[in-house]
Write a sequence for this structure.
C-alpha cells in the first residue's frame, strides 16, 4: 500500500508560490498530431482541434494499460521486481485555483520546462500523467511531450478533483460525473498523438470501489506508484532525492511532479535521482516497459 499521506501537502496549498519560470503556452497554438507516428485510434478524428468536439469516446484498445471495457480496472503500484527498470512518472496537476493564480499573475508557471530540458538532453524515458486543464493551459508543452518518442502520456483527470470523500481537502467530483471526466481527459490528451496509453492516476491516489467502478467503461489501468518522492512544496531538493533512493527497487514507479511553482525543487532533485539510480544499477524506462505492457527495448 502506498503511503499516500506524504502527498497531503500537495493538494491544499495550491496557491503557494516559491519560484517562477517561463510560461511557454501560446493561446492560439493548435497542436499537430506530433509524435512517433503511432496511429491514432479509429474513433478519433484526424481533423479535430482543441476546440473541436469529438464524436465518440476512443476506447484506446491495444494501447499500453488498456483493459477490457466493463471490467473494474486493475490498480498497479509497481512492475515485476526483476530486472533493472524503474519508471519516472510526472504528474501535471491543474485546478481552477491554480488557473486563477496564473491569470492573476500570482504564479508564473505550473510547467517545469527545466525537467523536460534535462530529460531530453539525457534522453531519459518518462511518463506524464496529465490533467485536461493542464493540457489546455499548456498545449505547446503537451505537444513537446507528445513529440518525444521516449515519453508516454497518461491521464490524471480533467481538473484534479477528488474521487473519494476524504482526499486532502480537494473538492469532490460527483460520482455520476467521474466516467465522463476521465473520458474527456483522454480525448483531450489523445489529440496530441505520440505514445498514448490507457494509464490513469487518481488525484492524491485517492480511490475506492465507487471510483474504480466509474472507470470500468473506459478500459484503463489505474497506476498508483510505490515511490512517493514528496516533491510537492518541497523546500529543498535533498529530501526528495533521499525519499526516492531510499525506497526505489527494480520495477518501481516513482511519483514526481512537473508543476513548477507547486513542486519547485523537482528539477534540482532530478539529476541527483538519475545519478543515484545509475549507481544502483537501475535504468529509467517508460511505464509500459516497467509494467510489462510495452516493447522490451523501449
Ligand atoms: Zn496530482
Amino acid at each position: 500500500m502506498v503511503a499516500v499521506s506524504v502527498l497531503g501537502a500537495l493538494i491544499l496549498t495550491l496557491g503557494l508560490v516559491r519560484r517562477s519560470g517561463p510560461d511557454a503556452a501560446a493561446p492560439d497554438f493548435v497542436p499537430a498530431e506530433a509524435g512517433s507516428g503511432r496511429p491514432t485510434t479509429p474513433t478519433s478524428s484526424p481533423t479535430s482541434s482543441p476546440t473541436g468536439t469529438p464524436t465518440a469516446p476512443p476506447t484506446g484498445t491495444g494501447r499500453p494499460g488498456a483493459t477490457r471495457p466493463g471490467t473494474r480496472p486493475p490498480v498497479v503500484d509497481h512492475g515485476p521486481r526483476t530486472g533493472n527498470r524503474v519508471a519516472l512518472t510526472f504528474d501535471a496537476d491543474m485546478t481552477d485555483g491554480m488557473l486563477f493564480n496564473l491569470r492573476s499573475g500570482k504564479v508564473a508557471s505550473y510547467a517545469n520546462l527545466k525537467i523536460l530540458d534535462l530529460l531530453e538532453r539525457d534522453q531519459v524515458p518518462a511518463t506524464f500523467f496529465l490533467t485536461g486543464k493542464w493540457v489546455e493551459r499548456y498545449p505547446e508543452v503537451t505537444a513537446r511531450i507528445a513529440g518525444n518518442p521516449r515519453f508516454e502520456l497518461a491521464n490524471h483527470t480533467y481538473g484534479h478533483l477528488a474521487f473519494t470523500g476524504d482526499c486532502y481537502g480537494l473538492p469532490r467530483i460527483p460520482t455520476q460525473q467521474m466516467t465522463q471526466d476521465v473520458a474527456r481527459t483522454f480525448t483531450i490528451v489523445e489529440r496530441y498523438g505520440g505514445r498514448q496509453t490507457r494509464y490513469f492516476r487518481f488525484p492524491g491516489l485517492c480511490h475506492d470501489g465507487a471510483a474504480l467502478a466509474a472507470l470500468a467503461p473506459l478500459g484503463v489501468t489505474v497506476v498508483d506508484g510505490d515511490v512517493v518522492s514528496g516533491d510537492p512544496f518541497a523546500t529543498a531538493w535533498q529530501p526528495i532525492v533521499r525519499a526516492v533512493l531510499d525506497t526505489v527497487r527494480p520495477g518501481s514507479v516513482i511519483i514526481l511532479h512537473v508543476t513548477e511553482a507547486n513542486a519547485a525543487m523537482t528539477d534540482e532533485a532530478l539529476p541527483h535521482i538519475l545519478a543515484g539510480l545509475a549507481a544502483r544499477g537501475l535504468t529509467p524506462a517508460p511505464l509500459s516497459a516497467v509494467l510489462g505492457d510495452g516493447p522490451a527495448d523501449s
Notes: The first strand starts at residue 75 and ends at 76. The mean pLDDT is 85.
